[in-house]
Amino acid sequence: MREQVVEEGVEERVFLSEASLCYTAILEAEREGEEEEEEEEEERKKKKKKKKKKKKKKKKKKKKQKKKQKKKKKEENKGEEEQEEQEEQEGEIMRRKNKNKKKKKKKEEKKKKEEEKEKKEKKEEKENKGGE
How far is CA 97 from the centre of its chain? Predict the structure, then answer.
C-alpha cells in the first residue's frame, strides 16, 4: 500500500511538474504574443507618426509655395501699379504742357492783335493829323 501511495505521489509530482512546465510555456507564449503585439503596435505608431510628419512637411511646403506665389503676384501687381501711375503722371504732365502751350499761343495772338490794333490806330491818327 505504501508503495502504491509513493507511486501515486511520484506520479502526482511528475504530473504537477509537467503541468507547471505547460503553464510556464503557456505564460511564456502569452508574453511573447503580447510582446509581438506591442512591437507591432509600436511599428504602426511609428509608421503613423512618419506619415503624419510627411503630410505635415508636404502641407508646410505647399503653404510656403503659396506664400511665395502670393508675394510674387503682389510684386507683379506693384510693378504694374507703379507703371500705371507713372503713365498717368506722364499723361498729366503732357496735358499741362499742352494747356500751357495753348495759353501761351493765345496770349501771343492776343498780343499781336493788340499791336496790330495799336499800329492801325497810330496810322489812323497820322492820317487824321496829315489830313487836317
Answer: 45
The single residue listed with the C-alpha cell 511609428 is: 46
Q: What CA–CA distances, in Å, run from 16 to 2, 110, 121, 125?
A: 20, 137, 154, 159
End-to-end alpha carbon distance in the chain:
192
Find cell 498717368 and name the residue: 88
Give counts: helices (H), strands (E), the chain.
1, 0
The amino acid at 10: V
Q: For residue 69, what is its C-alpha cell?
A: 506665389
User: Which amino acid type is present at position 103?
Assistant: K
Residue ranges in the chain whose pLDDT is less than 50: 2, 5-6
pLDDT in the model for residue 109: 95
Which residue spans within the chain are E strands per DSSP? none
- Residue 132, all three cell numbers: 487836317
The rounded distance, in Å, linking the Cα atoms of 70 and 76 is 10
Helix (H, G, I), strand (E, B) or coil at 25: helix
Domain boundaries, the chain: 1-122
